[in-house]
């Protein structure tokens, strides 16, 4: 089955670094995706990991450990516009559907 | 660059009515996905199509049906609408012929309100 856990809410300060963790118990996927979603808007792709390890993409990095069922998204140099929900989603399986976690609502404060 | 187009953007229907949502994927994308996002909920996968054939099915009610047409656009048909169907419906598309075949591009969504 699919069981994806993320913290419900997090607060961080502008300019700081924040790490959003995701644990999962799921099968049949070959990638772990992170999406950003502002309220009422479409999810936008941030990062994904197919292999274990760290993937860096500008201010965003994502880490995956398949054996531990664990991933995290690292956001550096936080900006106010980073206030949004961050969705962890195993995907990329045979049919590439995404199974979203409950999302972490990040509030960036001045 | 062209994005996923969804229409209408907003739709208000009464209970027991029908609704049709349309999705136009990014040109040359071969796969379309439908997701439903209720208020305060995460997006839930409904159904997907690859090359006009249904490729996967998630938690889609029997009252809903979908198809992908020869021009790759897709339609989600919803009948006997219930209040609980009120949600944002996202369409996403992807292509198996690009560097990252797993990345899905989401449309702006259709906000359906059932009264």
3D structure, described in words:
- The complex is a heterodimer of chains A (110) and B (115).
- Chain A has no helices and ten strands.
- In chain A, the strands form two sheets. A five-stranded antiparallel sheet of chain A has the order 1-3-8-7-6, with no helix packed on it.
- In chain A, strand 7 and strand 8 form a beta hairpin.
- Chain A is globular.
- The mean pLDDT of chain A is 91.
- The relative contact order of chain B is 0.33.
- The model of chain B has no long low-confidence stretch (mean pLDDT 94).
- Chains A and B meet through strand 5 of A and strand 4, strand 5, strand 9 and strand 10 of B.
Q: Strand share of the residues of chain B?
A: over 45%
Helix content of chain A: under 10%
General shape of chain B: globular
Distance between the termini of chain B: 37 Å
- Give the number of helices of chain A: 0
Question: What order do the helices and strands of chain B follow?
Answer: EEEEEEEEEEE
Distance between the termini of chain A: 40 Å
Oligomerization state of this entry? heterodimer
Main pleated-sheet profile of chain A: 5 strands, antiparallel
- The average pLDDT value of chain A, as a whole number, equals 91
Rounded to the nearest angstrom, the radius of gyration of chain A is: 13 Å
Structural class of chain A: mainly beta
Beta-strand portion of chain A reads over 45%
Radius of gyration computed on alpha carbons of chain B: 14 Å
> Strand tally of chain A, please?
10
Mean pLDDT across all amino acids of chain B: 94
Largest interface summary: A-B, 24 and 26 residues
Class by alpha and beta content of chain B? mainly beta
Low-confidence stretches of chain A: none
Q: Helix count of chain B? A: 0
Number-wise, the strands of chain B total 11
